Amino acid sequence: MNKRVFLIVLDSVGIGELPDAHLWHDEGSNTLGAIRDHINFYCPVMTDMGLFNIEGVGGGVQSPSASFARLAEVSMGKDTTTGHWEIAGLISENPFPAYPDGFPAEVIDEFERRTGRKTLCNKPYSGTDVIRDYGEEHIKSGALIVYTSADSVFQIAAHESVVPVEELYRYCEIARELLQGKHAVGRVIARPFTGEYPFERTSNRHDYSLVPPKDTMLDLLSRAGYETISVGKIKDIFAGKSISESTHITSNNNGCEVTLDIMDRDFKGLCFVNLVDFDMVYGHRNDVPGYARAMTDFDKYLGKMIARLRDDDLLIITADHGCDPATPSTDHSREYVPMLLYGKHVRRGVDLKTRDSFSDISATILEYFGVDQGETSGHSFLAECLSDAAFLPSDAPSDEELVQIAADMRNKAYTPYSNYKVGAALLSKSGQVYTGCNIESATFTPTVCAERTAFFKAISEGEHEFAKIAIVGGRDGEISDFCAPCGVCRQVMAEFCDEDFIVILGRPGAHKEYRLSEVLPFIFTKKEL
């Protein structure tokens, strides 16, 4: 069994201001709230998963398909590095240094000495505005455009015809080496641009983060022998530490395509994805229509991702901070972030309320892989979200094997009156299989369905906890594509199973699973008595 986790960070998709947002001048920020009512926003997949059922968001569906939570940030910051490190189990107790008045002379002078180039700007600036205002001077003089933002970043912009990309990267490495100690900014970022005025930034951006000072989830997984695959700027954020494989991407859509390709591969471990366009292209540019459209595009890809999930896969959707495109500010915002957990064995509609830290994601992933979380932070919510089927013994039959057992039992059915033969294979949580077939009577009333035969056989043997049942049926010698349990059998299932009990319908090689809540949406249980 190759367990895989796909952790996708929708960069900057916050869901409302944190209680301490006023300390960051982010009162009223709500990134999702700013885009959800725009005509370009259409996200049926995330809506069905429970995005709007999350505490404080509002407008949810009746039966979400995922487990969900609102996550608060503990770390002292609202930037990409801080957010991702916390997701990975590392809390930043002190904020990275920021430079609202630009970098001091001791930094700039030494940077100019080491690179051999003068600098321009050196103050907080929008990334698109700075190349508009300083681009032509940069081309004429060859001086590097150095700027920052409200976040802890040292950004270097240069035209690719003036400073080749590899040379710009080398300058960033010099800056990263220089910016340590009291000037240890979270990230040094290469910001190449091209064309003629008005210039355009290229996809050759590259981030140079600090090396995480303590272990993260990635370190622990790597030491335990699991693969840690980076898509997008994850490798940059963790300075390449404990990353087994990485892929650079050019856009959100490209990142989704890369992720889909990885989902078709056999591997064991974590695929950690960052989709930065939400933040870089739309949030920082206060582009509400573009942000809404980007969410719609991702939602389309998300449907494809869900279709490619394997039995033991987990899919987690979250964010690292906010960047409300409807506020006057173009900077990140201090917000809660969403968490959607989906998988074949994940309970539907589990409301985990508001969690104390992004790092609960790390703790959950580590528990899923059976890796001790060491000194990393966070409290796992795995046990609250996984269905009983996830804890079956390793030698329990697969769904296909269970369906074949049911098909074989169908041959033993006694149906001289209807000629409709049904077989059932009931899997208990202990891993034991109990079989049944339908048995008819000339007076019809004493007839017993295959499902009830299997349940009553199991109960008579002292078994009362069940994980799933496969049902195969059809008239005479043919097996139908879909043989639904009758109302009485569904009610028996409701008596002994919870709403996440799995019902497998179809034929060998072509079957589909349903939760009991789907085949019996209005269950009458002991609670109603």
List the helices and strands and how they pair.
Elements: E1 4-10, H1 31-35, H2 44-49, E2 67-71, H3 80-87, H4 105-115, E3 119-124, H5 127-141, E4 144-148, E5 153-159, H6 165-178, E6 187-194, E7 200-201, E8 206-209, H7 217-223, E9 227-231, H8 234-237, E10 245-247, H9 252-263, E11 269-275, H10 277-283, H11 288-308, E12 313-318, E13 337-342, E14 351-355, H12 360-368, H13 382-385, H14 399-410, E15 420-428, E16 433-437, H15 450-460, E17 466-475, H16 487-496, E18 502-507, E19 510-515, H17 516-519
Parallel strand pairs: 1-11, 1-12, 2-14, 3-4, 5-6, 9-10, 9-11, 17-18
Antiparallel strand pairs: 2-13, 4-5, 6-7, 6-8, 12-13, 15-16, 15-17, 18-19
Summarize the structure.
With 529 residues, the protein is of the alpha/beta class.
Task: Tell me what the structure shows.
It contains 17 helices and 19 strands. The protein has 529 residues and is of the alpha/beta class. The protein folds into three domains: 4-90 and 212-386, Alkaline Phosphatase, subunit A (3-Layer(aba) Sandwich), CATH 3.40.720; 105-208, Alpha-Beta Plaits (2-Layer Sandwich), CATH 3.30.70; 399-528, Cytidine Deaminase, domain 2, CATH 3.40.140.10. It has an eight-stranded mixed sheet, with helices on both faces. The model has no long low-confidence stretch (mean pLDDT 94).
